[in-house]
Amino acid sequence: GGQKYFGGARAVRSLSSCASSVLMGCSSAKLVGGGGRYEAGGGPLAYVAGGAPAVVGCLWDITDGDVDRFALEFFDLIGLREESKKKKGGGKQDKKGGSDLGAALGPARAACKLRYLTG
Fold this sequence. Notes:
Blueprint: H1 3-6, H2 8-13, E1 21-23, E2 32-34, E3 38-41, H3 43-49, E4 55-57, H4 64-77, H5 82-88, H6 101-109, H7 115-118
Parallel strand pairs: 1-4
Antiparallel strand pairs: 2-3
């Protein structure tokens, strides 16, 4: 997938710090099993090892339209898009002033047309 654009898990793992990351694409948050002998690995764990406090992604395949709808709604809810800040006054803020990623996931999933297929 996207490893070819940013150098792969090794490059992310070696970061001294990393912001919360949103991985949008089919199976972007899926972990690859170690065959029963080793622990699972994959992109999301590399981000956590690189210092990301949170990683949001897709565990299975999702249609392009639904991933776009989910991402736009999610970004609106956390106040990331400039247009949404003007309309809604920004995202729900936690005590430290950051956007509440966990609270935005449920409502963002409702934006998908194939909700029972894509989760």
